Structures are given as C-alpha cells and as structure tokens.
Amino acid sequence: MKVYVSGKWVDEEDAKISVFDHGLLYGDGVFEGIRIYNNRVFLLSEHIDRLYDSAKAIALTIPMDKAEMMEVVAQTCRTNKLADGYIRLVVTRGKGSLGLNPYLCEHPEIIIIAAKIQLYAQDLYENGLKIVTVGTVRNHPEAINPRIKSLNYLNNVLAKIEAINAGCMECLMLNHKGEVAEASGDNIFSIRNGTIMTPPSHSGALEGLTRNKVIELAREAGYEVVESPMARYDLYVADEVFLTGTAAEIISVVEIDKRPIGDGKPGSESKRLATLYSDHAKSNGYAL
Ligand code: PXG
User: What torsion do the CA atoms of 165, 169, 175, 177 make, to the nearest 10 degrees?
Assistant: First the structure.
C-alpha cells in the first residue's frame, strides 16, 4: 500500500513523520474519514470543506488548496487501485519544539491513507447494537468544540473504553447539559410514529456528513425530520434508534441502558433508510 505523506507517495513502512510533530505530542491536528464506493469518493467536497473548517477553527493553515487536496485524495485511491474502501486524511500541526506553541511548527504534514475498513461485525448490522450511556461527557463547546474533527479524540476514546467495559461496542454520550449528543464516533437518530429526530449540531455532536445525507434522503422520501435537543427519554420510548457515520454507515440500536428499543429488533424504517443511503452512495461521488 502506498501512503501519501506531504507531497510523496511512499511504501507503508516508509510512511513516517517526526516524533516532534505536535499531532503526536498534543493531538494537534485535524482529520477526516472518507468512503470510496464503486470507484467514486463519496461526499468528497463536503469532507474537504469540513477538514478546512476544522483547520480554520484551530488556526491551522493547510498548505494546499481544496481542489488540489481533492485531487491528491483521488490520486491516492488510484495509486492503490482502490475501488471500495476508506480514506483517512490527516493534517498535523507539524514538527515543532517541546512546548505547546503551535506557531513554532512551520510545516503541517498531510497524510492520506487509503485502505479497507469494517467497523462492526456483520451480525451487528443484522441484529443491532446494544449501547449504554457513559459518564464521559461530550466536550463543552467552548473547550474543543465537537464540530471540530480534531486529532484529539481522547475524550471519545474514554467514552469508548467505558462502553467496552460495560460489554457494549458503542455508547451514548450526553452534552454538559445532560442532553443527548451522539455516540463516541457516530451520530444518533430516533424514529417515533414515523417522525425522525436527531439532536442539532449545537447539542454537542459532530455535524456528520452521513447524518446530513440521511436527513436529506429521508426528507426526499417524505419523512418529517426534526433537529431538536433530545433527552434520553426520547430515545428510550422511540420505535427505532439508529447510528450514522462514514465508517459505520447506518446501524440499528436495539437496546439502550437495558431498555429494549421498540420490539428489540432492528426496525423496518431504519432498514429502509439504510437501503436509500447505500443506493445513493453507490452511484454518487467524485469519479476516480
Ligand atoms: N461523530 C463523531 C464524533 C465522529 O468522529 C461521526 C460522528 C460521523 O460523522 P460522518 O461525517 O462520518 O458521518 C464521526 C465520524 C475513524 C473514525 O477511525 C472516524 C469517525 C469516528 C470514528 C472513527 O476513521 N468519524
């Protein structure tokens, strides 16, 4: 596999950056996870826009314009002959000194890995996920704003540890006000009496691109979709709950905090949305 590192495609073993990179020392950088379906990079310009917004929010200037970034991402897929897969695009602050000052880092590093991914085992897509609420609260918006897709994911990692320790593969994270935010790496939706609900991004969620696409496709299909602050109660009494993410796609949640959701099996409306999403994803995107 060839990995792109700041201007060159190199073998996996040679894909290296400095131990003085602030991405490593402080989690100082931004990233994206992007899907390739059927020789097309799905939602590429949206991912690139979010990457540049995240970079702007942390005062990091990416040393490449957006059009060029889209082309190097596509070229990395072509080089690896990847028709279906997953891209990890990372921009670090770059090599600096031992000390927080990011202005001493002169050259941000751009890393593009194009590989395969399977986030959850197939049986979880068929039978649904069980999740628990964790004590780790989603970042306060005036700390690292959750809309920034930064390399500093330790808060989410801590949430994931709590989930796994409780015997679950995912968790429910609340915001600092106790409202539903999202899962550790996916957005969350409920369906009740045919109405779809998800927290607005200012409730402490990443503004997921899968989330936005699902909202768009659901509205086109005639569903009412409401973006509203949610309490755990709204999830407990829902007919269906599902998670969305680039890697996870759409996966049903069948139990939250030991309460079965609906009849405790993946629901029919979530399955319908998953089909609408995968049909759309297979036939749209930046052609390779
Ligand atoms: N919330 C969080 C906190 C995320 O990190 C999503 C929601 C879903 O967003 P998208 O735009 O993908 O629909 C994410 C997605 C990885 C990885 O290893 C990436 C994410 C989450 C977990 C793992 O690449 N990002």
Answer: -60
Residue type, 162: E
Please state, in angstroms and rounded to a whole number, the distance separating the CA atoms of residues 17 and 33: 20
Q: How far, in Å, CA of 4 to CA of 19, rounded?
A: 18
Domains annotated on the chain, with CATH:
2-115 (3.30.470.10), 122-281 (3.20.10.10)
Q: Which residues are catalytic?
A: 149
- Please give the pLDDT value at position 199: 98
The SS3 of residue 29 is strand
Pocket lining: 198 vs ligand 1, CB cutoff 6 Å: no
Distances (CA, A) of 199 to 136, 207, 238: 18, 10, 14
What pLDDT is recorded for position 117?
Answer: 87
Average pLDDT over residues 229-238: 98
**Ligand 1 pocket: which of 157, 175, 186 to mutate (most atoms within 8 A of CB):** 186
- How does the average pLDDT of the chain come out, rounded? 97
pLDDT at position 121 over 90? no
Residue from 149, 157, 170, 174 whose mutation best tests the ligand 1 pocket (most atoms within 8 A of CB): 149
CB 89 within 8 A of CB 64: no
Share of the chain above pLDDT 90, in %: 98
Which tokens in the block code for residue 118? Answer: 């399977």
Structure tokens at 122: 């197939």
**Locus of tokens 């709950």:** 241
> What's the whole-number mean pLDDT along residues 54-59?
98
Give Rg (Cα) of the chain: 19
- Alpha-carbon gap, residue 127 to 26, rounded angstroms: 39
